[in-house]
UniProtKB/TrEMBL annotation:
Name this polypeptide is given: diguanylate cyclase
Keyword Transmembrane set for record: yes
Residue stretches spanning the membrane: 6-27, 34-56, 62-82, 94-113, 119-139, 146-169
Extent of the signal sequence: none
Organism: Mesorhizobium kowhaii
Length: 391
């Protein structure tokens, strides 16, 4: 059976291996900042374990203060890494109380109440680990199985530190003058090694999961406008049945080739981004916008009647007609044409609705552009009559 010193050295070795692995991962993926933060936190805990092992051999008041400060600091950094990964704001809420507890711990340890210092530190670590568990339980939006395991391991480790503090508190050991050595400390050493190893492995899994999510987002997003692309449209709606309250609007910027030829492609890109910005202004629940390629866009509208869908598409067209792009040749105002395809009571496939919208779009082009047309309404959206130069 391993003695207490062996358990501490095992914890240090495990931590070093984990931190080195995480540093290597961060070097290959610098965007994964939370991995670097976890690695730093684990290194601080490794330093704590090594110095604590030294403290068990040669007790010293100053060394005791350093050991306790490193324990709180290490778990604070790991808590911050969790907030970083989950996108939880307000780092100060974790930093300020922890630093305050560390200051109090240093003060009571300095006057000889090192037992009280251990109790305060264990309470601080318990609070930090509990906060990590709660954050992953509440804020996790990815793979729930991984996040729940993180919560469980954090909670288990928190309980083990709480037991260490409760034993000292129950025995009234306010002044130790040596490292605490009891059943709770030994249990904590085993639990801490197991939980930190598990959390390290799960950190790698979370990094892999985040990388997959980011890669999927990149493949589903148009880099110029920030809208979803054709792949995303097929992924989200390819298998959907379009009912009577669903429709697709196809938009095509008018005379866009001429805009590129006369004003240049950078100006053309600005025009595309302006139209994307107009669509985003009208985005709401049930309205998804996509750039299909070139100057072609699509908007999928759900939970709206045909009339409201037509009205929304017309408003987008009119709003875009008021947008002005400054160029070297003077102000540029562009227009857009649109066509709408509708779902039906019996349901329709995406391809069929897109085909109907495309047919209506070409009808709008033939009708003089700068309008929205559907098979259910041949009325034009009120066109903008710009005084400025138009594409």
């Amino acid at each position: 059976m391993l003695d207490f010193s062996s358990l501490l050295l095992a914890a240090a070795l495990s931590g070093i291996c984990l931190s080195v692995t995480m540093f290597a991962i961060w070097c290959t993926a610098p965007k994964a900042g939370f991995v670097l933060t976890v690695a730093c936190g684990i290194l601080v805990l490794v330093a704590h374990v090594i110095l604590f092992w030294r403290y068990t051999k040669e007790p010293d008041p100053l060394l005791c203060q350093i050991v306790l400060a490193l324990l709180s600091l290490g778990f604070l950094i790991i808590c911050l890494s969790s907030m970083q990964y989950l996108g939880v704001p307000g780092y100060r809420r974790a930093v300020a109380p922890t630093l305050a507890a560390m200051a109090i711990c240093a003060a009571v340890t300095f006057i000889g109440l090192d037992g009280v210092g251990f109790i305060i530190t264990y309470a601080t670590v318990t609070a930090l680990l509990s906060a990590i568990g709660v954050m992953f339980w509440i804020n996790g939006s990815h793979d729930r199985r991984i996040l729940l395991v993180v919560s469980f391991l954090s909670g288990t480790c928190a309980v083990s530190f709480a037991l260490c503090g409760m034993v000292l508190l129950g025995r009234g050991q306010w002044a130790l003058a040596a490292a605490p050595d009891n059943w709770a400390e030994r249990l904590n050493s085993v639990v801490a090694v197991a939980c930190m190893t598990g959390l390290g492995a799960l950190t790698l899994s979370l990094h892999h999961l985040q990388a997959q999510i980011e890669l999927k987002a990149e493949t589903m997003t148009d880099p110029l406008t920030g809208l979803m692309n054709r792949r995303a449209l097929t992924s989200l709606y390819g298998e959907r049945s379009f009912g009577p309250f669903m429709s697709v609007v196809m938009f095509d910027l008018d005379h866009f080739k001429r805009t590129n030829d006369v004003y240049g492609h950078p100006v053309g890109d600005q025009v595309l981004c302006r139209f994307a910005a107009v669509i985003k202004k009208y985005a709401r629940t049930g309205v998804d916008a996509f750039r299909l390629g070139g100057e072609e866009f699509a908007v999928v509208i759900s939970r709206m009647t045909d009339e409201r869908a037509y009205d929304l598409a017309s408003k987008i067209g009119v709003a875009f007609g008021t947008e002005i792009v400054a160029t070297q040749l003077g102000p540029l105002r562009s227009t857009v044409s649109g066509g709408i395809g509708f779902g039906e009571t019996d349901g329709r496939r995406l391809d069929d609705v897109l085909a109907e919208a495309d047919t209506a779009l070409y009808a709008a082009k033939r009708a003089g552009r700068n309008c929205v047309i559907s098979r259910k309404s041949t009325a034009k959206a009120e066109p903008v009559k710009p005084a400025l130069r138009s594409a």
